Amino acid sequence: MIGRVAGSAALAVALAAGSTGAAVHAAPKGKPKWRAQQGPGPRLVGSLNQVEFAGDQHGWAAGVEGPDNDLALWKWNGGKWKRAKAGWRFAPAGLAVSGPKKAWLTGVTLSAAHALHYNGRKWREVAFPGPGAPVDLAAAPDGTAVSVARHVFDGVNTVQRWKDGRWRPMKVPLPSGASLATVAVASKKDIWLGGGRRVGEDEVEPLLMRWNGRSWKRIALKGAADKAVTKIIADGDGKAWALRGSTETTLLRWDGERVRERRLPGGVGALTLTHDGAGGVWVLPYSRSDAKAAPYLLWSKGRWKSFTGPRRNGVVGLGDLDLIPGTSRVVSVGGLQQKEPKERKFPMLEMFS
Prior knowledge:
By secondary structure, this protein is mostly beta strands. Strand 18 (229-234) and strand 19 form a beta hairpin. The chain has one helix and 28 strands. The two termini are 23 Å apart. The chain has a four-stranded antiparallel beta sheet with strand order 1-28-27-26, with no helix packed on it. Residues 1-25 have low confidence and may be disordered. It has a single domain (8-352), classed as 7 Propeller (Methylamine Dehydrogenase, Chain H).
């Protein structure tokens, strides 16, 4: 499966993920479940690895598609997905949407970093100053957008904030040996950074930091030292959820005073997470290499629940998921590997409704 990745590895991973994706205003009758969704036509080979919503009628999905692996940009209008004109050729690494007229996308090729901005009418390319390759990207409803990047060879981290139509450096007192992996933004006074910090030859301790509008504060995390923070989502009131560790992943909850940590069922690893609209979170675990249906985990009311997506005619590989704000509907995206009549991968979308 694919995820939010950066550097030259992003290109190979993003090209590897596949299907189908649209929702309707009224939830289908019956018990909520994961359902296959229809994407825009014509159907092209490729995959999706990013999806973000700013509301029931405003969302974007991104990936690559077509014989030349062109950038895929799909727009959600509240009833179906439509392709947007792109014209670029790079693998997406981060996508953020704060409203109908504000969206950002970052990505990489083998030799360069890329950044796009959407102003409500069209996407345009903007400078990505770096240094380093984009790692993650997040935005809040108030228009605050933050990108993190990392230079693969010299280990330099870059945190940038969107201001006055361009990306500008943001000063962050990162500890020595830090390696950023994720960013979350609830507002201009509630920004989160996560990753790890190398403290020995083969030892990495987790790193979780928050900006409260005045200063940065590092939140202490206990437990296994080799489990870096891989993904954060913010609640908007100084609280946040996070994933820690790519294998045997744990779910972290910061309630403003302390951290609570829980292992995922079966000791599985997970890629990303999103809110469920009711105080819990959906987690996207890694699936088996031969999985014909996508696995999902829901942490709700103090316990785990397991779900399975619809059975597919091929091997599924999901890469991202996001809650549609104001609803309990969640959309996941990825790729479907099919072998008939020949081995190909297609973009895939599923919705919990």
